[in-house]
Amino acid sequence: MSDGIEREYRRRRGVPPAFLTMLIAAALVTANALHAMATLGPSGWDVLAVAAWLAAAGRVALEQWRARTFVTADGVTVRGPIRTRGWAWSDIYGIRIEENRGSTPRCSGYLYTTDGHRVRLPHLDEYQLTDPIAEVADLCATALRLGLTSLETRPEAEERIARGARRLKAWQRAAMAGLVVAALMFVYDIWLVFDDRPTQTLLLVGVVPLLCLPVFFLILDRVGESRNRRLTDSATRTSTAAPPG
Q: What is the pTM assigned to this prediction?
């Protein structure tokens, strides 16, 4: 008897527009690169473009048609594009809906383990569910009613979750900075072409941004942790300050 806890989240509606756009772009870029190789002969950039776009399109296709989220009385199982992982309810700290600004899907479900790890739950989002927030609320209420989870808040788990969120934000901002560097290097490479100077496209557009990425992350991560410590210290001083006499 499932008692309402057994659920399966998979693609039941259409593919999100952003994913369709990626698939169409991958098809166009691949066709163009193959045509260029057939006409002018193969080049390293054409081969790299075909491999990268086919890998991206393959991952999108697998995620849409293979990925699942299974919920049972034993726990939660996530079947991703390639591998399948499962967590018992005793290892699950909570399931939450979070907003991802500027990404697809915009609202998605995430599982948090007791050690603070964050796992996205495929198809538990606004594209496949009318109200994912209500769905997660009902799922958590059912698990609570069956004694599979509790409402106990663990400060150490919350701190690990908050730390993970800060690191993720630092990586996202570092990636954006890396894209800016890549764009600047591309402009510089074009200038070298017009100035009749030897170009190093792979080095400038590919290697330099990748080398900058960990540097940006370390700087942004340190800045984020420093800001968090200042806010925490300020909140602590405010809460412990003696009331005015």
A: 0.74
